[in-house]
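User:
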Amino acid sequence: MRCITYAGETVVTTDDVAEALVTLTAAVAERGRADAVTIPIVFEKSGEIGEASLVIGVGNDVLSVATEWDRPEPDFSFAAAQLRHHQHFPRADGGSGDSVYDEGPEAYWDPDLDGFGRA
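Assistant: Predicted structure:
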């Protein structure tokens, strides 16, 4: 489990959500942008699950620190996957996830369709 510090507040979430959040924050900031995301959190005292909304990117610092946790760790894998599917999350192939037009020899611009077509 990790403590996420943001805007003077600290919340607790899973390792995979924290890792995805920090990576996405850096990627969004690198593009000179900001974006709003929601992550699942656990309230330390009660152990109840909740949500935190954050603005990530330029000018928004996110700190992730390991914390001791003696309760069962919740399954937030779906939320981590959602962060990793964000359009600006870095991809293993070096792509950003942005749409790219196919510029192969069979692609051509079709003014009637206002876009690319196939031969």
